[in-house]
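Can't attach files on this board, so I'm pasting raw text. These are the components:
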Amino acid sequence: MKKHMEDAIILENVRLNPTTCRMILQAPAVAREARPGQFVMVRVDSSFDPFLRRPFSFFRIDRNEGIIELVYRIVGKGTKIMSTKQKGETVNIVGPMGNGFRPPPEDAASVWFVAGGIGMAALVACMEDIRLRRPRSRRVLFYGAKTHSEFIPKIYFSSLCHEVHYSTDDGSAGFCGTVLDCMKSVTGANSLPSYLYACGPPSMLKHTANWVIENKIPAQFCLESVMGCGMGACLGCALPGQVDYGHGKTRFVHVCFEGPVFYPEQIRWEEL
Ligand SMILES: Cc1cc2nc3c(=O)[nH]c(=O)nc-3n(C[C@H](O)[C@H](O)[C@H](O)COP(=O)(O)OP(=O)(O)OC[C@H]3O[C@@H](n4cnc5c(N)ncnc54)[C@H](O)[C@@H]3O)c2cc1C
Ligand code: FES
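---
Top answer:
Structure tokens for the assembled complex are below.
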């Protein structure tokens, strides 16, 4: 897949909640190639400080209009600078990077999406895509966060799924507990999903992976790791896992070019 570098024009950059922003970018070259689950590397400032580009998933993609959207949580220097950018300014981006989500089988009766915190940023584009590709599948979202103020507004996802279940660690909204416990609480043994997509913090993914493997549910997981180059040069994004290229299995997977989307069997979760 062709990658592009372009100066993307900021069309909007607004807060969705106290710690999360949404940036809309006019980026026709990247948008043309982008798929859900892939990401862009953003140079947050032309001053080269911070020096390394930061990776962000495609939150939404509009190929016809040449627009991509990012939803990002402010956690450090780079994202703080991003949050100060104004409409009309540009940010240099490179992408699309990574493999992206594959669609579920044609006959998948129910597809579940499990989002933990800012992991939701990668799943909205996936839900939108599956709504178009598999209109007969029942789409159910489980959305967990530490506390209610971390949720992004439901206007961004409520029309994409048939059911939404919220959970918070502190009980301030929805089910009180983890998103996996929330899933288990609404699931009888007879109503397991045909397919599952997940994105969130490592501990959430780990527990969800054990659960899908145990219940033989086909799934894809979108993972994060701290990235240097984002394009396979530095090997800094390695995680314990295995990819079979037909001549023996590897011991590590590289999130930027073999991921960020993996089948649960490809990761050594116990070592994460
Ligand atoms: C493929 C991919 C897609 C991503 N998509 C999104 C997204 O859509 N929205 C979003 O908000 N974030 C996303 N992230 C995480 C995002 O890239 C980091 O939060 C960002 O780079 C932090 O930059 P910073 O300069 O603000 O923080 P820094 O000052 O670099 O770091 C602040 C803190 O964040 C931690 N951190 C830095 N990078 C990462 C990382 N890659 N993963 C986990 N923790 C990190 C650091 O260890 C440190 O504790 C994604 C990461 C990857 C690898
Ligand atoms: S971030 Fe450099 S190889 Fe993946």
